[in-house]
Amino acid sequence: MMNNKILIIDDEIKLRQLLTRIISLEGIEVSEANNCKEALQLLSKQCFEVIICDVKLPDGSGVDLLTDIKKLHPASEVILLTAYGNIKDGVQAMKNGAFDYLTKGDDNDKIIPLLHRAFEQVNLRQRIAHLEKQVAGKYSFDTILGESVAIKNTIELAKKVAPTDASVLLLGETGTGKEVFAQAIHYNSKRVGKPFIALNCSAFSKELLESEIFGHKTGAFTGAVKDKKGLIEEASGGTLFLDEIGEMHIDLQAKLLRVLENGEFIKVGDTKTVKVNVRIIAATNRNLEVAIKEGSFREDLFYRLNVFSIMLPSLNDRKKDIAQLARHFTMIFATKMNKKINHIEDSFIQHLEQHNWKGNIRELKNIIERAVILSNDDSLTTEQLPIDLQEQITQKNNHLSAFDLSSVEKLHIQRVLNYTKGNKTETARLLNIGLTTLYRKIEEYKIQM
Fold first, then answer.
1. CATH top-level class of 147-311
2. Which of 44, 83, 158, 331 is 20 to 30 A away from residue 256, measured at CA?
3. 3-class DSSP assignment, residue 50
4. What does DSSP say about strands 56-57 and 60-61: parallel, antiparallel, or unpaired?
């Protein structure tokens, strides 16, 4: 309590001085103000955790002043005092954000316990704000590592859509970090103080998934012994991340479409409509356009989800980032295992850069964790890599020659780039390949431009 500060605002000098003496004995630093003007001057210079304010002041009303205090210091708590105990003023004071409302003289014995509760509330709010700041920092776009063009372009797209309420569809191979992007989008949106809830649609049967997402009423099915809120209701005000949306049964897709169109749904076994305000971010590694043709995915839902789509690059498309990611994961796992690893051999990184990453970042993370476990000193070497990875790289290097396919491909790409004077869009068109593929080839073959 020693660092807490109180401001007493009252034009009755004797009462103000009495309160100051009583409160100071608790080890609390007290400042005084005679009227609204003096109070606002003090409040513009410093923050007080708790303010005790008279309702009737020479130059205004304490109830009105409360609004100004909250604008300057939203986290501060205000206790209002009055000699009259006017119920109307008390109701308005609570609406304006007062912590409590006391009558002078009648409630003197309540002041100190009330102050302690007010300080507890302020300290709790500060701790929550600190934790929210830490969480937001943990899931900021700055934590998504990589210097490759592919990942930077992806981050820029996510940054642009984050502040909006638009539905987002994250596409890409398994293990590319779709949930990381979903979290970053949420924590950089205006919904940051509200829930972020993630659900893997492939982990449940149709019936269980319907109950998980939309909730159910008592008796809706065997085992439904009480009402249950669905995740879509739990996430109201925030974001619901539906991973593997392509695995959702087509019957449930109609219910999700209604949420996206009208912000409403009906629980399993219920007849009443529930309104929600939730942002949907969905992800899949499936080609939904093919699924639509096959009849397993609704075309109208696809267009609702696909308001803003982001294709996450595979690790093979951003091999330039492998060294940075490997060092980052090494630091994390070394810390967890209480090991000191301050060196990674160049050959270790080279092996990683030549590997074909079918499991993407998730696979890289697992390989690094394994290497850290096997490490007996302060260094990571190729000996700690899986045997099959070592053998693949060895075979690949043994077959390289001046006439192998990769060498011919590299030379051809270089020639076309020279012909287009470095214009990558035109080069990709002439080669009849995607621009992302061209960037990957340039990085993979270390083509100079």
1. alpha beta
2. 158
3. strand
4. antiparallel
Topology alike, domains 147-311 and 315-398: no
pLDDT, one tens digit per residue, over 19-51 is 888 888 888 899 999 999 999 999 988 889 999
Q: Return d(Cα 15, Cα 241) in angstroms, integer.
A: 56
Q: State how far the Cα of 155 lies from the Cα of 140, in Å rounded to an integer.
A: 11
**pLDDT one-digit tens code per residue, 356-391:** 999 999 999 999 999 999 998 899 998 888 887 877
- CA atoms within 13 Å, Cβ hemisphere of 225: 1
- On the 0-12 / 13-18 / 19+ scale of CB atoms within 10 A, 48 is buried
Look at phi and psi of residue 244 and say left if phi exceeds 0, alpha if psi is from -120 to 50, else beta. Answer: left
DSSP 223-276: T--S-EE-HHHHTTTSEEEEETGGGS-HHHHHHHHHHHHHSEEE-BT--SEEE-
CATH class of 315-398: mainly alpha
DSSP H helical ranges for 139-249? 149-161, 178-187, 206-214, 231-234
Q: Could you give the angle at the alpha carbon of 27 between the alpha carbons of 21 and 29, nearest 5°?
A: 70
Which letter does DSSP use for residue 432 in this model? T
3-class DSSP assignment, residue 198: strand
Cβ neighbours of 175 (radius 10 Å):
20
Backbone φ and ψ for 93, nearest 5 degrees, come out as: -60, -45
Residue 108 CA to residue 255 CA, distance in Å, equals: 58
Return the CATH class of domain 5-133: alpha beta
Structure tokens that stand for 365 in this block: 């993370």
CB 160 within 8 A of CB 153: no
Q: Where are the domains of the chain?
A: 5-133, 147-311, 315-398, 405-444
Alpha carbons 136 and 138: distance in angstroms, whole number: 5
Sequence-distant (6+) residues with CB within 8 A of 396 are 354
Q: ∠ CA(13), CA(19), CA(22), 5° rounding?
A: 140
Q: Reply yes or no on domain 405-444 having CATH 3.10.590.
A: no
Can you give the pTM of this predicted structure?
Answer: 0.63
* Alpha-carbon dihedral angle through residues 385, 387, 389, 395, given to the nearest 10 degrees: 130
State the average pLDDT for the chain.
Answer: 87
Starting from the edge strand earliest in sequence, which strands make up the sheet with 279-284, in order? 196-200, 239-243, 279-284, 168-171, 308-311
